[in-house]
Amino acid sequence: MKPIEKVIARNRAATFHYEVSERFEAGIVLRGSEVKSLRDGRVHLGDAYASVERGEVWLRQLFIAGFFAARAFPHDERGARKLLLHAKEIRRLERAVVREGFTLVPLAMWFRGGRVKVELGLARGRKAHDKRAVLAEKAAARDAEEELAAVRRGGKP
Asked: How far is 42 from 65, CA to CA, in rounded Å?
């Protein structure tokens, strides 16, 4: 039986700004108040990135809003959070970032079986002309889909 998954947040801008070549699933080390805020969906992945330091992967600039009931011991809203990956995956990511010029970008967060998971993308930045080409492809695909739907309904395209 597959554990229940609930998506917390997606970084939709990442796939526009970056060409994602590979994806990794990682666990994340959090405090209780951070998990409570995530359950409320109070997180923003837009500015976040990951870095490899001394054999560990850290997620930086991830915004998790403070939890109202944790005022006595609040968490740092933009603090670094450790990601949990296998050692082999960490070495592979480190090699790609240092030698090949890739960037580690968080693409999504979700709950699986009571634990928070993060999808990391091994990505390269896109140039402006590449972004325009992607927008043109999406527009063409959307137009073709609309025409196909019109034909299916029996109308003219």
From this structure: 6
Instruction: Decide if pLDDT at 1 tops 50.
Output: no
Q: How far apart are CA 86 and CA 42, in angstroms?
A: 28
pLDDT in tens, 47-58: 888 999 898 999
pLDDT of 69 reads 65
Q: Which residues of 12-40 are buried (b: 16+ CB within 10 A; e: fewer)?
A: eebbeebebeeebebebebbebbbbbbee
d(CA 120, CA 104): 6
Q: Is residue 96 over pLDDT 50?
A: yes
72 beta partners: none
Q: H or E segment at 15?
A: helix 12-17
CA 121 vs. chain centroid, Å, equals 7
pTM value? 0.74
Residues 6, 115: contact at Cβ < 8 Å? no
d(Cα 48, Cα 46) in Å, to the nearest integer?
A: 6
Residue 85 CA to residue 104 CA, distance in Å, equals 13
**6-25, pLDDT tens digit by residue?**
888 898 888 878 888 899 99
